[in-house]
Structure formats: C-alpha cells, structure tokens
Design a protein that fits this description.
The complex is a heterotetramer, with two copies of chain A and two copies of chain C. By secondary structure, chain A is an alpha/beta fold. Helix content of chain A is about 30%, strand content about 20%. In chain A, the strands form two sheets. In chain A, strands 7, 8, 9, 10, 11, 12 and 13 form a seven-stranded mixed β-sheet that branches. The two termini of chain A are about 35 Å apart. Chain C is an all-alpha fold. Chain C has one domain: Alpha Horseshoe (Serine Threonine Protein Phosphatase 5, Tetratricopeptide repeat). Helix content of chain C is about 70%, strand content about 0%. In chain C, helix 1 runs antiparallel to helix 8. The termini of chain C are close together. The chains are: A alpha/beta, C mainly alpha. Chains B and D meet through strand 4, helix 2 and helix 3 of B and helix 1, helix 3 and helix 4 of D. The structure holds adenosine-5'-diphosphate (2 copies) and magnesium ion (MG) (4 copies). One adenosine-5'-diphosphate sits at the interface of chains D and B.
Amino acid sequence: MKKIINNKDQIVDDMLSGYIKANSDRVKFSNNSKRIILRSHPKNIEKTAILIGNGSGHEPIAMGWVGEGLLDANVVGDIFAAPSGDLIFEGIEIFKENSGCILLISNHAGDVMNGEMAIELAKEHNIDADLLLMYDDIASAPRGSEDQRRGGAGTTFIYKILGALSEMGEKKETLLSLGKFVRDQTRTLSIAVASGVSPISGKKIFHLDDDEVFIGMGVHGESGYGRQKISSSKKIIKLMMDKIFDDYQYKEGDIVIPFINGSGATTLMELLIIYNDVEEYLAQYKIKIYKPLINEYITTQESAGFSISLLNSNEQMRNLWISPSSAPYFHL
Amino acid sequence: MKKIINNKDQIVDDMLSGYIKANSDRVKFSNNSKRIILRSHPKNIEKTAILIGNGSGHEPIAMGWVGEGLLDANVVGDIFAAPSGDLIFEGIEIFKENSGCILLISNHAGDVMNGEMAIELAKEHNIDADLLLMYDDIASAPRGSEDQRRGGAGTTFIYKILGALSEMGEKKETLLSLGKFVRDQTRTLSIAVASGVSPISGKKIFHLDDDEVFIGMGVHGESGYGRQKISSSKKIIKLMMDKIFDDYQYKEGDIVIPFINGSGATTLMELLIIYNDVEEYLAQYKIKIYKPLINEYITTQESAGFSISLLNSNEQMRNLWISPSSAPYFHL
Amino acid sequence: MHSAYKKWILNSYDKINSDYVELDKLDQLVGDGDHGSTIYKGITVAKQLYLNKLTSPLDETMAIISKQMRIEMGGASGILMSIFFDESGKIDKSNLNSSIIDIFEKSIDKIMKIGKVKAGDKSILDIYIPVLNFLKKNSDFQFKKNEINEILSLSLAKTKEMEAQVGRAKFLENRGLGFIDPGAKSTEIILREYFESLL
Amino acid sequence: MHSAYKKWILNSYDKINSDYVELDKLDQLVGDGDHGSTIYKGITVAKQLYLNKLTSPLDETMAIISKQMRIEMGGASGILMSIFFDESGKIDKSNLNSSIIDIFEKSIDKIMKIGKVKAGDKSILDIYIPVLNFLKKNSDFQFKKNEINEILSLSLAKTKEMEAQVGRAKFLENRGLGFIDPGAKSTEIILREYFESLL
Ligand SMILES: Nc1ncnc2c1ncn2[C@@H]1O[C@H](COP(=O)(O)OP(=O)(O)O)[C@@H](O)[C@H]1O
Ligand SMILES: Nc1ncnc2c1ncn2[C@@H]1O[C@H](COP(=O)(O)OP(=O)(O)O)[C@@H](O)[C@H]1O
Ligand SMILES: [Mg+2]
Ligand SMILES: [Mg+2]
Ligand SMILES: [Mg+2]
Ligand SMILES: [Mg+2]
C-alpha cells in the first residue's frame, strides 16, 4: 500500500495530533479524550451546541469543520467506523451546561446505533440532547422513503447553516426544525470513477473497470444506480441532474446552492468543468445559483469521483450559508 | 482516460469558465482575454501590481490565488505549458497605470522564455515591469547554484507575502528585494508516490513501481535524487528533512513557516501525519513553528506525493503571511 | 466461574490473534476489509482487562470489558458484539442451564433492537439464534460441547447462502451471497471458546 | 513567393495532421506527451491565417502567422518554433540563396539566445544547424532538394544519440537517450515541406 503513514493502528491518532498542532489557534482536544475535537474558544453556554460523531478516513470532514460559526465538537471514530456511543456521550457531556445540544448523525447504520445510544445515555444523565438524522443521497432509497437514504455530501448544508444559526443564539427547537427543513430541501447524487485504498486493509475499497463509472455510489463504496461507461462531463451531468430533477420539483426562479464535492483524486480542474456544466443545466431551467462550494470536503481516501448536492434555499439559509466561520477546512 | 471532461481542446477554457462563474463576486476575465484572470475589485493604481504567468493543470494554483491581498492577475497557459510572452504582456499592459508591476515566474524553461519576452515587450511600450524569478527546489541543483533550481511549492511564500505587502502600498523596489529575501530563506523538497494522468496524452506522466517513491521529483515529473522503496512517514520525513537541513543552516530559536503541499491524490489524512512528523523533527532542533499551511495547492493532476517547504521567517514575513486575502483557494 | 471465563477470553484472544488476517480478507469480499482488525482490537482489550480485574465480581468485570470492547471497536460491530460479553456476566453456577439460556435470550433481544436485525439477515444473529434454539431444546440435560460445535459450524455455513439485509454487505451488488458473514465467523469462534471453557 | 509559401504551409499542415498522434507518443517517451498536439495547434492557426491573409505582403503575413503560432502553442516550443516562420517572411526571390541562408542564420541566432541552447543539446537546433551548414557550403549552386532531404533525415537520426540539455527531456533519468527529439522531428517535417515547395 502506497500511503505515507506510520503504524497502522496509530493512523487516526497521528493525524489528529498533526491537525491539532497545526491549528492550535482554533481547535483543541477535550481534556479527557484525544478523539474529541473542540473549539479553542468555546461557544457561550447560553447557546445550543452542535456536534457530530463520525468515522474518520473522510478528511477534512468532520474535524476540519470544528470552529466558530460551525461545529462545536467532532467525536472521531476509527477509519470508516463510527465512534462508540460511550465516546459520543462523552462529547455531549462537555456541553451539559449549554442550552441544549444537537447531535448530528449522517444516516449510516453504525453511526445511528451509536448516536442513539449516546442520546439514551444523555437522557439517563438528564442532559438535554437531541439527535438530528441527516440524509440526502437519492440513489440509496426511492421517493417516499427519504428517511431510508444515506447521508452524503449534502449534509454539509445542515452543518453550516445550524452552526451559523446556533452561534447567533437561536433556541434548540428552532434549530432542529430548520435542520430538518434544510434536509428536506437537499438532494445529492454521487458518482464513483475509481477506488481509493483502505488504509486498514491496504486494498481497493471497491472495483471499477478502466472505462467504467458508478452512478450513485455511497461514500464507502455502497451501491447505487449501477455501472456505466465513462462519457463526457456534459453527458454525465445531464444524467445525474435529470435524476435529481426527477426527485425534487424545482421551478423557475428557485435559488439553489450547489456543492460539488470531490471524493479524493478527482482534480479541481475537473470539479470546475463539472460545475460549469451544472450551471448550464440549471440556467436552462432558469434556476438561479447562490454561492457554490467546490472542492474536496467529504472524501473516501484517494477515490476518484464527485457528488452534486443542491439545496433549494430561502433567504435565511443563504445568509447563514455565507456567514463567517473559523473552521480550518471550510472555505466558501 | 478516466477524467470527467468534455472536448480535450476545451479543458482549460471550460475550467476557467466554471471558475469565474462560481466566484464572480471576487474574480473576472480581462476584457480582451478569457485566459487572463483578474480581481473583480482591482487594486488602487497607486500600488504595485503582482501577476503571474504559468501553465495550467496544477489547480488551484495560480488562478485560485487571484484576490485582494494576493495576486492581481493570473495569465493562464495550456496544460503544463507556459502562456506566450504576448499573452503575458497583455496581462502586464492592464496595469500600465499602476506604480509598477512585478511578474512572478517560477523557474521552468518555458515560463522563463515567455516571461522574459513579456518584460521586453513591456520595456518597448514604456511600461514599468520587472520579472521576479522564483526557485526553491533543492533537488534540482546543488548549493551554490540556487538560481538553477526549479520553482516548487515554496514559491507560495513569495506570492502571499508580496501580495499582502503590495496591498499595503509598499513601493516596487522594496517588494522586489523582500521577494528575493523570502526566496533565499525558502527551501523545498518533494516526493512523488504515484503518477497522475496527463489530460492531453491520456497517459501517466511518469512511472513508479508499486513499492517505490521518488525523492525530489519536480511538479511535472522532473527527476531529482532518485527512487527509493516506500517506508514509514517518520523515515521518509527524516530523510527529506535531513536533506533540507544540509542545504540551509537552521539554528535554535528560528521561527519557520512550514507548508505541506499535496500533489493531488495524497489524502489530507496523510498530509497531517506528515506534518506531525515534520513538527517533531523541528522540535528536536528547538526550531519554532508559525502558522503552517497544509493542503493541496500546487498539484500535478491526480499524482500522489507531497512537498515540504520551509520559510525561515522574520516578523514582517509572519505578519504578511497571515494577513487577510479574498482569494477563493488560499486558506490558512 | 472466573477461571472458566479467564480461559474463554484468553483462548478467544489466541484464536482471533491467529485468524484476524483471514477475517479481514473475508470482510474485503463482503464489506470494507476491517472486521478482523476490529474484533482483534476488542478481544485484545478484553484480555488485558481480564488480567487486571480478577478481583472484581464477575458481572462487574464483564460489564467493564463489554464497555471497553464497544469503545475500542466502535462502529456497528462494536456496539452489537459487546452485548454478549456484558450479558455473560450474569451466569449463575447454581442455575447453569437456565442462566445460559437467559444470557442468550437477552443478548439476542438487544442485538435485534439496536441492530434492527432479524434471523436470516446474514449477521451475528444467525449464530446466536440457532444456539439458543438448541439450548432451549436441551435445557433439561447437560449441554454437550460436540453438539453445540456442530450447530455452530452448520449455522456459520448457512450464512453463505444469505443475502445481507444489514451491515455494509447490504450495499454490495450481490449482498454478500456466496460468502460467509465475517461477524458470524468471529461470533462462532467466540461462542465455541465460550462453551469449550464453560462446559 | 506567396504561392510557394501557401503550398508549404498547407502541406505542412497535412503532414502534421497525419503525424501528430505519433509525435505525441514520441513526446511521451522523452517529454510530457504533448508536442504533437502543440505543433498541430500552431500549424492549424498558420493554415487558417494564410488562407485569410493572401493579400498582405509576405513578410507581414509571416509575422502575423508567427505571432499567432506562438500564442496558440505557448510553452518553450511555441516561442522557439515560431521564429523560423517570422524570419522566413524575409525571403528575396532575386537573392534566393543568400536570403535563405540569412533566414536560417537569424533563426538560429534567436533560438540560441532565447532558448539558451547550443548544437548537440538535442533540440530543434540540431536540425537547423546542419541545414545551414549545407546551404552555406552550396551557396554558389542551386540547392538540391534530395541533398537537403538527406541532411534532414540524417540530422534527425543523430538526435537519437544525444542526451538532452534543454527542454523537459533534460530532466528525465536517461535524458531521452535512444529516442529522436520530438521538436527535431516536427522541425524536420516543416523544413522538408519548406524546400519541397520553394525549390
Ligand atoms: N445491524 C446489524 N445487526 C447485526 N449484525 C450486524 C449489523 N451490522 C453489522 N453487523 C455485523 O458486523 C459485521 C461487520 O463488522 P465490522 O467489519 O467490524 O464493522 P463495519 O461493517 O462497520 O466495518 C458483519 O459481518 C455483521 O455480522
Ligand atoms: N531551450 C530549448 N531550445 C531549443 N529547443 C527546445 C528548447 N526547449 C524545448 N525545445 C524543443 O521543444 C520540444 C518539446 O516541445 P513541446 O512538447 O511542444 O513543449 P513542452 O516541452 O513545453 O511540452 C523539444 O523536443 C525540443 O526540441
Ligand atoms: Mg469498517
Ligand atoms: Mg508540455
Ligand atoms: Mg467491516
Ligand atoms: Mg511536451
């Protein structure tokens, strides 16, 4: 395996150690665990805390998004494995004095089991914490079964918008309902172009032929609509956007925030060409665009591929989207 | 070739079109050329303009660094090919009313030939423009022949520091001499782990065996110290840092700005593990660290690999390094 | 019971230690290639703790071990596979058969609830359930190791023909059909050592 | 001269059009795999411009073509290979031999100065110089196509044994030894068509 690492068992700890050293002006470890990343300058306890538990191997998410105006904490699991409910609860406990706490969980089985356990532990300890389940990947379940969908790159909109609004002191119930509203206005579809290598097994995570792409693959190689021969960006984008447009009724004048996320090896050159084609597709339906996000944020190691996420926005969402954040790896 | 593109001849134009659409609040095309990227809010003409001409295929550099507090313009060539002297001159001409203009050129043959031609054309038109040659890659020429070295990722320090100082209205001569001083305090060494694919030829840019890395390879696959078997991050970092320390006399108490640049496919996970080991190496010599930069900035398509750049800084450099910038793809 | 449980944990550790590379390979075929490494982390911490906790009452010891396994392993398998270790602390020498049956019933209940899983979904449950059925059928006699071992082997083999409804294999194009389930395999190892030490 | 030059440019275009994939492949072996595509862009714009500029004086036509080739091609090869096209505009029918010699001398001077290159460095210069030497030796006679063609073939073959001191091949581990130089190859094509049309 050609990765620049030391001991395999130390990958996550070495990475987090480097991360905290490099960004000590903005983030720190919790007192009790080097798997819990906190803001150096915590939020006022009058405000609701926003945290997430998730597996690592997808950097910069989610550790890179801890910062003012974004996340209060990230509880970090091993590579591609959710952290335990116990550890997530430890993260929640840090905010027991806050005006509530929202645990974001991307809809993947291990994350959900451990997240639910953490929330139960919080209840037992009389800590005010709620779980907000995030899902957006239209390839993983049909219309009508939205809550069966996996969490994809479009969950970003929830992180950023709730992070910003909670910073302003909005109360937990309003945050939760806005979070759900954002989720319901978000659609994501991804495509895998080539597999990266798991740092644990040292093997490719999934297999694709040399001229093949996979529409709808999840962030760990989970299956979706199936394999296709590779074609031009324009054709691929049309196919993907048609599916998104089948799933959600956009109408003239809608103002959409696009997020083009690279999964690791796909170049920014390609992501910008893809964006150019997404923009043309939307223009043809007279849909307006607001402040797109284009880069690698939610990766699957050095896999090639990308996802398109669209948030059909209202003015509040747009203002929160562009509000400032000190997170080391979130940059509009 | 598994790239998401349209017509091969349109790659650069499609990419720039997407880039300008996505960032229309901050950057625009020049009136006469869609290969010249300018700030939407130009600098006051009392100030010296900073521009660069370079080949594309290395995104986000350099188009992504056009912005307030950084570059005034980027003249963009084809993939891996410098723009013509004529086009660079067109870029310079835009700033003919400014208090001088500095053309940054990374030391690669084609870039230098065309940069020199542009400066000659400027002279013929009585425009005040100087070329600042940038080089930092210690693998490409021995000590004593520093000006034969190639430009690598460490040129970033010059861009950012001159960009910031020019924004403050400093005069051209001072900018030029600070630029040279920064250059002389910078050392870079890179390592290639696996080749990306040229979007022009559709073939790998260079060849490496499955267990092989190449110390000192340049940004287009140019040769350096040679091939090695892959080993742990700690061992690779020691080898690289030893070479940098052979080349430049660091001493206790020096304050160094590290830049760990990923060349495309190498994960942020790895870059942070690498940074962790670089930090440990420096700590052992009691060298202090200031605000490191860690991400993919100067890429060679989806090549795997990274470079370590160190700037031995003074206070002025450090202040300029962290001063704000609106460039869409530069983020400390 | 402490000495039987010590034997169980140490032997399970030895077995997993020699098999975890194989288990990773199996999980490469039907998952993300880490099940061996994950259960190895769990059983390693179980072993270390067991060697440190010999003075505590058995149920406390096992509760601590279960929690630490869950934390070390993380993911779906950590929370689900640690359940049996916790429940196993409630063994009662004077009521051996019924307490074992109780341990299995409680474990299965929790796994089904937390894992949203049922028999035939190609998971660890497809080992626990056939064992429980056997135990219940034979609750009036002394349990026979060789009979239980046969159940274990048979149940594991059956997972080969199942299509996964849970876990990562659920998302594979063939849902893992044709391969045994990695979690079932490690569960089979651990239960085999359990009865081996206990009976 | 216009009709000879038109023939030159159009024939060069045809030849490059059918050879540029080969040239890219050659540049893959000793460079970055784009020389064919690059010279194809240059000669395509030359052809288009030539068809539009027939009314201008030859030297103006060639100056415009040279500049546009340089802009289209970019890189080292754009600035260096466009030089000959500019100089070639100074051809003088009434002083054919000496004006051709002059064109080659001036081109070589500029290439050497801008490219910081000399004979034997494995570059386009290793085509121009042997041709110039031949022309000078034969300046009192009518230049013979077949003799020039022989020089061209021979000079190109010789680049095979050179180690690159300029261009991307300079940075290869073997400096391109064993392969002909891509720029030399396209220059050989263009000069062959030049004399073919002119003489
Ligand atoms: N919902 C579930 N119910 C029961 N068992 C499950 C469930 N999800 C996963 N498993 C078990 O976990 C095993 C995989 O474990 P492991 O590889 O350690 O975790 P991960 O799938 O997170 O990589 C599967 O083979 C299966 O037996
Ligand atoms: N300094 C130089 N002097 C003369 N010829 C050069 C020089 N640099 C490059 N060349 C020529 O350019 C050719 C490569 O052209 P091309 O592939 O189009 O450009 P690039 O090397 O920028 O990709 C080489 O084969 C060589 O003949
Ligand atoms: Mg896993
Ligand atoms: Mg090139
Ligand atoms: Mg697994
Ligand atoms: Mg080339």
